[in-house]
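The aim of this short unit is practical: by the end, you should be able to scan a pair of folded records and say something sensible about each. We start with the first protein, listed as its amino acid sequence and then its structure tokens.
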Amino acid sequence: MQRKVLGRDGGLTARMLLTGGLLGLLYVVFAVVLFSVLDVGLVAMVAIVGGLALFQYFTSDKLALAASGAKTVGPDEAPELHAMVGRLCALADLPMPKLAVIDTDVPNAFATGRNPKHAAVAVTRGLWERLEPREVEGVLAHELSHIGNRDVLVMTLASFFAMLAGVLTRFALYSGMFGGGRGRDSNGPPIWLIVLVVSIVTYAISFLLIRALSRYREYAADRGAALITGAPENLMSALQKITGEMARIPQRDLRQVESMNAFFIVPTNIRARAAGLMQTHPPTEKRLAALAEIAREMGRPV
């Protein structure tokens, strides 16, 4: 395997199309059921859901940075970070994203944005301080691969609709607790119960689909980082160090940023070994094994 500009991952593209199609079908059914049960006008339903989706689409990078507490930094504030990302963007043939720093000791990073021209990469203070420059470069190349693969947008929109289903689930529960009404057929089940069941089913299916895509996209980004830098061993070292350092971080600090776990290069709940279907990321051991195979193909040290 020769070092080359980041290319398309056919497996990732197929999974993104499949996941997007299944999620789209799921949400159409979801909206139709709610439209029928809540007796809301079709135009109003489309306007509300479509408006929220468009808002998420155009503001995804700003919302993600705000949610993580990241602060955008310019070349004067973080010259080394800008120089490093600039070199990697030149290698990957990608436009320069916005850069941001999160003031936390947790070593991590994530990418967000609707496309390569409207993207952002955020790194934590802990990542910059705890890792060597070559390891940081491997992590940044991983995040740029997410941008180049455009999987960030799919994850953002999919997560948004899953969140909407979750909000409706809580709304239905509260309605039931405080006396939710019944439909036009007073002998039928109450509206809140129908909404609750539909929302739970939608959220559960979305949850599994999103996590299946999330795990594969991490492998694809790891491979992309190896191609961009030509040194997969640097990312291997970074993953091992981040995983090890995470165990030393106080739980209080980890909880402050856990809402970004689906986007981080390594989730903050790495200590909790959940079932495979529930994980947002592949086990670190499997990622290292895949990178080791790439390194062997490239003739690099493992």
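Turning to the second protein, read its sequence before its tokens, just as you did above.
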Amino acid sequence: MKLQTRFSGCTPKRVVCNPPSGARLVIALLALVFASLAVSADNLKAFPPAEAGMVRHVIDLPQQQDESALKVELIIGRTVKTDAANRYFFLGTLETENIPGWGFERYILRKLGPMAGTLMAVDPDAPQVERFISLGGEPRLLRYNSRLPLVVYVPAEVEVRHRVWRADTGPRFVHKLALPDGRTAVVAEGEFEARSIGSYSVRIYSTQNAQAGDDTTFFVVGIVRARDGTVEKALLADLGKDGPPDLVVAIRSAGSGAYLSADAYTIGKDKIALRATLSGLPANADPVAALKSALQEPRPQ
């Protein structure tokens, strides 16, 4: 069956007709839509339906001008009720499987493991809150490719979220602090990393034999920690314990909520220990006050 279309103003003897400009625009737009749907449908044929008890999630990424500067982070987990102070994560492994004959990849979480987390003391009378708890481990960053869908298979009760990261070549956070014992602490984001995600380091230097104005020559100890966002500030704060103040690092997430996270470190003579960590704080939260509250001893029963 052939589809024939007539346009007013076409000469019957001509093989090629010139429809009005408005009609040409409509035809072009319809052609793009149908071509896009056809490509998407053809690509999805490579991905089999979900097995019993599983759900297939399909993420279609919009086309971007420079996709090489973008990464997609898969965020997989569940919304559960927990305390607001501790940091939790689910155990589990997100597998990558290549589909034979297509060259495409799909991602499979066969089982969501038990939930684990930090063990900071909390007020037993404080109400629990609903929080989205994701898989533990390093962030899963994938290539941004609008021509192919991202297809993820997870158990039915599991949520699949994603966010897009863009490389940022702006200045990195580097801050120097003078410790009460005379040493120098340096907090810095990792070099050659995106501003929105990566790592940061805390380094301690001795100034005992240093020349004037040269307080970062004699390295003592350091630690590197993952960050989900940009380091916003580093400061010394009394968090309610005997001894010198703790070093607090506040990190601002790059997502729409601009949430805060905060890490507190105890600086010893030859070691750095992570004392407490908080994530998902409101954008206007005071990280020092939040850490103090989280570190309070529980009330007597």
